[in-house]
């Protein structure tokens, strides 16, 4: 049961492939292009503009390629941040991998063990993508299935500006941005350069050498 892996955009992915994966943004057919004006709410703001001295929580991922620190935005996505922090506090992410890496798109992790066994999660959460934040380079967003309210533990980091993943309407929910990389984006770029291929139950885009999250911890 691979319910938390490849995500959506039905026009860009075949139904069979979507059923096999199930919790990340669909791979772009070509290089990502700027979304049409309607694809982003008029009051959208960049995560970087939400305040550097607001006391927002930060989480550090210690990975096999180096450390990555993300700042979270509970004012913009309170339920999503609460959910993510609970997984961090529970030690859920320790020993998981970045199992889907697509250059010029995104890196996804937080749901599979090193031997590509999917971890059991808590109940899914409501999609808070309609929060004015855009899927820009370096932002942290929730992965989900075709059901817009199916996100649980998996997340991805945008490698480029992916505004096509933004909330448009309740007919096109998009993917909820709830944080941004504030240190270690060079490590994320190293992930993007890793050789990939099919492995285990996953048909493509899996790093041939596992990129392991050794620890995720709340930092001040």
The total tally of domains equals: 1
Average pLDDT over all residues: 84
Report the count of strand segments. 10
Under CATH, the homologous superfamily reads: Cyclophilin-like
Uncertain segments are 1-22, 30-53
C-alpha Rg (nearest Å) = 16 Å
How many DSSP helices? Answer: 3
- Helix fraction? 10-25%
User: How far apart are the termini?
Assistant: 37 Å
CATH architecture: Beta Barrel
Query: Class, according to the CATH hierarchy?
Result: Mainly Beta
Task: Please write the string of helix (H) and strand (E) elements.
Answer: HEEHEEEEEHEEE
The major pleated sheet works out as: 8 strands, antiparallel, barrel
Strand content: 25-35%
What overall form do the CA principal axes indicate? globular
Instruction: Kindly name the structural category.
Output: alpha+beta
- The CATH topology label is Cyclophilin
What key phrases describe this protein's structure?
single chain, alpha+beta, eight-stranded antiparallel beta barrel, two-stranded antiparallel sheet
Question: In words, what does this structure look like?
Answer:
- The chain has 220 residues and is α+β, with helices and mostly antiparallel strands.
- The chain has a single domain, classed as Cyclophilin (Beta Barrel), CATH 2.40.100.10.
- 12% of the residues lie in helices and 28% in strands.
- The chain is built from three helices and ten strands, in the order αββαβββββαβββ.
- It has helices spanning 15-20, 78-89, 185-192, and strands at 58-63, 66-72, 96-102, 106-113, 139-142, 155-158, 177-183, 196-199, 202-207, 212-219.
- The strands form two sheets. Strands 1-2-7-5-6-4-3-10 form an eight-stranded antiparallel beta barrel. Strands 8-9 form a two-stranded antiparallel sheet.
- The chain is globular, with a radius of gyration of 16 Å.
- The N and C termini lie far apart (37 Å).
């Amino acid at each position: 049961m691979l319910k938390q892996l490849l995500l959506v955009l039905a026009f860009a992915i075949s139904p069979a492939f979507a059923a096999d994966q199930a919790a990340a943004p669909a791979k772009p057919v070509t290089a990502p292009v700027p979304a049409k004006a309607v694809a982003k709410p008029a009051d959208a703001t960049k995560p970087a503009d939400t305040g550097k001295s607001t006391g927002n929580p930060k989480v550090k991922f210690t990975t096999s390629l180096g450390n990555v620190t993300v700042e979270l935005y509970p004012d913009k996505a309170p339920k999503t941040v609460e959910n993510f922090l609970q997984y961090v506090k529970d030690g859920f992410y320790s020993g998981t991998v970045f199992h889907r890496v697509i250059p010029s798109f995104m890196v996804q992790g937080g749901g599979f063990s090193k031997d590509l066994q999917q971890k059991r999660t808590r109940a899914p959460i409501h999609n808070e993508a309609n929060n004015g934040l855009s899927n820009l380079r370096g932002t942290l967003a929730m992965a989900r299935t075709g059901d817009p309210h199916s996100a649980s533990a998996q997340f991805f980091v945008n490698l480029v500006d992916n505004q096509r993943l933004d909330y448009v309407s309740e007919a096109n929910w998009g993917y909820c941005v709830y944080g941004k990389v504030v240190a270690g984006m060079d490590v994320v770029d190293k992930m993007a350069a890793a050789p990939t291929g099919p492995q285990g139950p996953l048909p493509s885009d899996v790093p041939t050498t596992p990129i392991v999250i050794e620890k995720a911890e709340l930092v001040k």
